[in-house]
Design brief:
Helix content is about 40%, strand content about 15%. The protein starts with a strand and ends with a helix.
Length: about 450
């Protein structure tokens, strides 16, 4: 049998690159050759972020695509990125596959692509590659797409995805109820973006209904009890990075590992970790209220404050805040989040409930303070607070701001709730089990690897 060679293509956003790169690292361990495609901009960000690290990028062949981004384009405008990729991607892929066929022992054998880019499958199929889709979020949200026709029929939403009936609904008896206002496209106030995201959900739904193999970063029992998962979906989560730090993690910002040394000095179960992923942004008013709430709580905290997290940063405010909380609070631009969440000093995770963060927190037994920002994060919050009962919602005040008093109140409530912590530890035990012999990760990952290898001659 020859060596499989996977062409891996994430949607070019941080929360998509990280898990697909982790999947790639694992495939390298199973003797796959990997070619990983990044946009030029993201590749430059990753290599620059890694320039001071001891990571070894050599076991993966990184290639770049010119996606037509122009100076001044907003790198967070996902709809615009999507539009650009639609223009350039099919021709680029054809060319890349053609070139690989001309190099001896370099031919691609399979194509692992983000489900958001499922429309590229035809190019790969035509070239005879095995194809696999990758979904970065959970099984519950993956199954929303195929349920859209039923939601329309039941009068929950109209043909454009606009909510007709407010309240809770269930897409199937096995999946916990969701709120119509939490549907992933509903949070976008701009109608063009909302309709674009709705269309994307419909497209994802269409692929779920085919026989196409879909890998999903979740594990058995987490979202649907013990119900049967559709046969074309393989749960291969949790995709946490191994503690072997030499492998590239695909961060767009340089990780500041000094926070681990700081955490080492803090008592067990004492620190609030605050991080809102790679895209969420706070306006200045909310940003200040969060800082003042942390101060008011009197607790220790580690805050991963990404550059640009607040568009209107007030340097003076931040400097005064830092000096007032010195010793008990640490701020870094980008934390080694998985390592942080695994640290015994961490008591809870104030999070935007992005799916990667959700999996990382729950796999480490950390309870959540939920502060969702957009897309499927409101549904993830529902799982955390209502289904698994391992977190609390941060409620908005009348002025649409989470107040400092609400922050203090919820921090105290969560940190003194032993039952919540016990449930979080039970979920961690489930996650641990899933990666052991007989667990869903190992079974499904082996099945996937064997399937990819079986067609290589
Ligand atoms: N992350 C990190 N350091 C930080 C903030 C985030 O390593 O300071 C990582 C986090 O571990 C997760 C990813 O960035 O893997 C964010 O993905 P998620 O799905 O949670 O949110 P998104 O960025 O897509 O909104």
């Amino acid at each position: 049998m020859g060596q499989p060679h996977a062409l891996v293509f994430p949607f070019p956003a941080q929360g998509h690159v990280i898990p697909l790169l982790e999947l790639s690292n694992r495939l390298v361990e199973r003797e796959f050759k990997i070619t990983f495609v990044n946009t030029e901009l993201n590749h430059a960000r990753i290599t620059s972020a890694m320039s001071n690290s001891s990571c070894d990028m050599n076991h993966i062949n990184f290639v770049t695509i010119v996606d037509g981004a122009e100076e001044g384009d907003d790198p967070n405008d996902l709809a615009r990125i999507y539009e650009r990729l639609q223009q350039v991607l099919p021709a680029y892929l054809e060319e890349l596959i053609k070139k690989s066929n001309m190099v001896e022992n370099h031919k691609f054998t399979c194509f692992i692509v983000d489900i958001f880019l499922a429309w590229t499958l035809d190019v790969a199929k035509k070239a005879g590659l095995q194809t696999v889709l990758f979904y970065v979020a959970g099984l519950g949200t993956l199954l929303i797409g195929p349920s859209v026709p039923k939601l329309i029929e039941d009068g929950i939403i109209d043909e454009q995805g606009e909510v007709k009936t407010k309240g809770k609904f269930q897409i199937s008896p096995e999946i916990p109820s969701m709120r119509s206002a939490d549907l992933p496209w509903q949070c976008f106030s701009d109608i063009k973006t909302r309709h674009h995201m709705f269309k994307l959900t419909l497209n994802v739904g269409a692929t779920v209904n085919t026989e196409e193999l879909i890998l999903c970063n979740s594990f058995s029992g987490l979202e649907m009890g013990n119900c049967i998962v559709p046969p074309n979906i393989l749960l291969i989560g949790p995709l946490l990075a191994s503690q072997e730090f030499k492998k590239p993690k695909g961060y767009f910002w340089e990780e500041d590992t000094s926070c681990i040394t700081w955490l080492d000095k803090q008592p067990p179960n004492s620190v609030i970790y605050i991080a809102f992923g790679s895209l969420a942004m706070f306006d200045h008013c909310q940003f200040e209220e969060l800082a003042l709430g942390l101060e008011l709580s009197g607790k220790r905290f580690l805050w991963a404050m990404r550059p640009g997290f607040t568009g209107e940063e007030d340097v003076g405010f931040l400097a005064r805040f830092r000096s007032r909380v010195e010793g008990r609070g640490m701020i870094v631009s980008w934390a080694p989040q998985q390592q942080v969440l695994a640290h015994c000093s961490i008591a809870c995770f104030m999070s935007h409930c992005g799916w990667n963060s959700t999996m990382e927190g729950l796999a480490n037994g950390v309870p959540f303070l939920c502060w969702p920002y957009f897309a499927e994060q409101f549904i993830n919050q529902g799982y955390i607070c209502d289904v698994w009962k391992i977190g609390l919602r941060m409620n908005l005040g009348g002025n649409k701001v989470v107040s400092r008093e609400e922050i203090k109140r919820k921090v105290e409530e969560l940190m003194s709730d032993e039952a919540m912590k016990a449930r979080a530890m039970q979920l961690k035990a489930m996650a641990d089990k899933s990666v052991k012999k007989g667990g869903s990760y190992l079974e499904n990952f082996n099945c996937f690897v064997n399937r990819m290898k079986s067609s290589v001659h």
